[in-house]
Amino acid sequence: DTEVTQTPKHLVMGMTNKKSLKCEQHMGHRAMYWYKQKAKKPPELMFVYSYEKLSINESVPSRFSPECPNSSLLNLHLHALQPEDSALYLCASRENINTDTQYFGPGTRLTVL
Amino acid sequence: AQKITQTQPGMFVQEKEAVTLDCTYDTSDPSYGLFWYKQPSSGEMIFLIYQGSYDQQNATEGRYSLNFQKARKSANLVISASQLGDSAMYFCAMRGGNTNAGKSTFGDGTTLTVKP
User: Fold this and answer.
1) CA atoms within 13 A on the CB side of B52
2) Which of A36, A52, A54, A100 to mutate to test the interface with B (most CBs of B within 10 A)?
3) Quick check: B85 contacting A, CB < 8 Å?
């Protein structure tokens, strides 16, 4: 099973709202990723977790707050977002940061009004 | 630093014909992995094929093959017998070795349209 799940599929929020995106995998992978993708552009790396510890933060604004409560679950907490944060947010995982194939979830399409 | 270049923003192919999507890369890591992903309009990134930098043979997965030319730093994707369902955006990506551990670098993508 190479499935990464993400909820919700779609999210519309106002600039004052607080919401969370959820990502889950049961492949025993210990590296998990958040990417942001704008239309017709490549994914941009936001965060990397390795063994539940934040390994890479690509200078993401603090209105995005990642959390890795356990090895299967990755959250992205959103607060006071801007309309330009509207994008597809993709979660991905791999066995660890030094192994190869990375598996992506279906993404959450976020619209900030 | 790693860099992936895809020079074809858009490509057209007739159904049942083969098509090659170009990808060149640059890295200072001696060990790296190269990937191709397909992204239909639904948004999901679908893993297609992987090539390790030390692999002696070109990777193949069904109708997909990766034409790996290490000296030229190219990793082109060949899709044989194109189908209408192959219409999508295709990304070439690289995973770096120790100096870039954990990061994947993506090219700008190529939009493939398969014509009936």
Assistant:
1) 9
2) A100
3) no
> Smallest CA–CA separation between A15 and chain B, in Å?
24
Do β-strands B110-115 and B10-14 pair in parallel, antiparallel, or remain unpaired?
parallel
How far is it, in rounded angstroms, from Cα A110 to Cα A81? 10
Per-residue pLDDT of chain B (116 residues; tens, 9 = 90+): 789 999 999 999 999 999 999 999 998 888 889 999 999 998 999 999 999 999 989 999 999 999 999 999 999 999 999 999 999 999 999 987 666 667 888 999 999 999 99
Provide the 10 A C-beta neighbour count for residue B22.
17
* Identity of the residue numbered A108: T
Cis peptide before A42 (omega within 30 of 0): no
Grouping H, G, I as helix, E, B as strand and the rest as coil, residue A16 is coil
Q: Which residues lie across from B3 on neighbouring strands?
A: B26
Inter-chain touch A101–B43, beta carbons under 8 Å: no
Tokens, residue B50? 């992987």
- The answer to whether A103 contacts chain B (CB < 8 Å) is yes
> What burial letters (b/e) apply to B76-103, b meaning 16+ CB within 10 Å?
bbbbeebeeebbbbbbbbbbbbeebbbb
